[in-house]
Amino acid sequence: MVLLGFKKTVILMSNLETSAAINTEHKISYLALGDSYTIGESVPLESNFPYQLSAKLNNNGLDVAKPHIIAVTGWTTSELQAAIKAESLKQKFGLVTLLIGVNNQYRGESLDTYRKEFKALLQTAIDFADGNKAHVFVVSIPDWGVTPYGLSSGRDLKAVADEIDAFNAINKEETLAEGISYTDITPASRKASTAPDLIATDGLHYSPKMHAEWVDSLTPAVVKALK
């Protein structure tokens, strides 16, 4: 496996829908930062959680643009930050989500390094929201160990779960310390061990149905902040 993905899938929305995602005069602009869980590895683009979130918010009376996504399968916190800097994106956004860290865990990177880099990314997200912390939303790291790939990987799955919990404890602590909304989707991801319809076709990532569950968890906080 290549860093929680069988390939490095690059989906930078500046290359796909710049005019739709960026140049929106009246819509609420949306920036999604992350890795394979943000782009929705092995699911249709419109089925990933940022696209489903945008659609659901529109159904809740908010006028939200299609998401501008900066995410690649396999990225760690440092790689995400480097890519953000390389893109030199100057726009401010009305909504920013951040979900990052599974590849830090998978590669065995230290918790101290993750804390430092996550804090920097959190500040980056706040900056993209023009300093409005109420418009930033952090999402916890799902547990890849419960997937068919994880179950056949030979890894100590209790250790994987414990490590993911440790990384999530850090991102939650730093998020709440900044007074930012935190949505815990990890328990939902663990249901995939007994629910095959929550798994994507690659046996490693999550299906549109799981992405929809994440959106259901995230939507109330976003609606409350943006309405």
UniProtKB/TrEMBL annotation:
<feature type="domain" description="SGNH hydrolase-type esterase">
    <location>
        <begin position="32"/>
        <end position="212"/>
    </location>
</feature>
<dbReference type="InterPro" id="IPR051532">
    <property type="entry name" value="Ester_Hydrolysis_Enzymes"/>
</dbReference>
<dbReference type="GO" id="GO:0004622">
    <property type="term" value="F:phosphatidylcholine lysophospholipase activity"/>
</dbReference>
<protein>
    <submittedName>
        <fullName>Lysophospholipase L1</fullName>
    </submittedName>
</protein>
<dbReference type="Pfam" id="PF13472">
    <property type="entry name" value="Lipase_GDSL_2"/>
</dbReference>
<dbReference type="InterPro" id="IPR036514">
    <property type="entry name" value="SGNH_hydro_sf"/>
</dbReference>
<dbReference type="InterPro" id="IPR013830">
    <property type="entry name" value="SGNH_hydro"/>
</dbReference>
